[in-house]
Amino acid sequence: MPVDSIVSTADTSLLESSGRAPVAPVVERERHMNWALKALLPIAAVLVNGLLLFVLVSSSLEPGPRNNVIAVAAGGALVICAAVLVVFSFSVRRPMLELQEKIARVRLGDMDVRVNFAGRNDEIGDLGRDFNDMVQQLKASQAEIQRLHQSQMSRAEHFATLGELAAGLAHEIRNPLAGIAGVLEIVGRDLPENSPARAVMADAKQEAVQINRILSDLLETARPRQPQFRPADLVATAEHAVGFARQQAITKRIHIELEAKRELPAVDHDPNQINQVLLNLLLNAVQSMDKPGTVHVSLDVDDAAEYAMITVADEGKGIPPEHIHNIFRPFFTTKGHGTGLGLSLARRTIEAHGGKIEVTSEVGKGTCFVISLPVQRKS
């Protein structure tokens, strides 16, 4: 039987037994020599050489018997080649065709496919079992990805609703709050110098400022402002934030050190937004320290001058390991006061600058935040 006929028969029988039409390959495959020819060529070469050797050996026979022996040997060689090809067709070709078809179905999204030759006790069976295991793992991974996607979509809708609510409440509260702050200022000016109510009024004004800051954070969360990039001195931005934070730290006898380890080039950033990020980190550092100490702020640039790094390290209580992965989530806080929006806004601001913010912490020893900002913004 011709080689092409045997291969064609094997292909047709496989597709008929599967009950499906052939699946067209998704990608164009490079043309290569048929596997049957590759298998038959060395066998045919051995048989031909053997046949030639047999002819030479049988040359001493008479013409009639010699021709008969040669014909029988040639027929035997053809029978052996055909038998080998049939064996290969059923033991190798059929599983490979089935595997190719199932891979095409997996590529189209069908994760329920399984190969039928996985029960064989040979290398082909091992291949089938590995393929079935791989598809099962892909199916489980796909289900997990869909679950996480659905969870993230639900959270996104939740935060969108909260954002709209926060924006509306912030506008409704800010106007009365401004009136209350104005009244407190007027009443405070009219009080006698030695009146004990002056201290109460000062605390009340401080609380009003705190409420206004919370409302600002809520508005920033609901409607974030796009950074206004310009090449600017990052050291000057850090100095501005440190100057404000020192006013809060001085009452707790906490010293804030600022160090530029090397000269920094101008960095593309929004000074106001980066100032707010640093101020938030510094105030958190001061609040985490129950005793006098030092907050270290350092600026550096990598060797390739592609990224500028700002490090804020404190000597405070530290963050427990079970909380450190949640500190950048909106509304997550371990403090008795605050909204839990500061670090969430900080990360969003840094990511809007094309950078990243990382944190390491050890309970009882302190926390270290590292901000990386690209020196030149990618367009």
How would you describe this protein?
It is a single chain. With about 375 residues, the chain is an alpha+beta fold. It folds into 3 domains: about 110 residues, no CATH class; about 70 residues, Orthogonal Bundle (Helix Hairpins); about 140 residues, Histidine kinase-like ATPase, C-terminal domain (Heat Shock Protein 90, 2-Layer Sandwich). Helix content is about 60%, strand content about 10%. The strands form 2 sheets. A 5-stranded mixed sheet has the order 2-4-5-7-6, covered by helices on one side. Helix 6 packs parallel to helix 7 and helix 7 packs antiparallel against helix 8. The protein is elongated, with a radius of gyration of 39 Å. The N terminus is likely disordered.
Rg, Cα atoms, Å: 39 Å
Strand order of the largest sheet: 2-4-5-7-6
CATH superfamily of the largest domain: Histidine kinase-like ATPase, C-terminal domain
What average pLDDT do the residues reach? 78
Tell me the strand percentage band. 5-15%
Q: Can you tell me the number of structural domains?
A: 3
Structural class designation? alpha+beta
Order of helices and strands: HHHHHEHEEHEEHEE
Q: What general outline do the C-alpha atoms trace?
A: elongated
Helix count? 8
CATH architecture of the largest domain: 2-Layer Sandwich
Alpha carbon gap, first and last residue: 66 Å
CATH topology tier name of the largest domain: Heat Shock Protein 90
Brief account:
This protein has eight helices and seven strands; from the N terminus they run αααααβαββαββαββ. It has 379 residues and is an alpha+beta fold. Mean pLDDT is 78; it is low at 1-30.
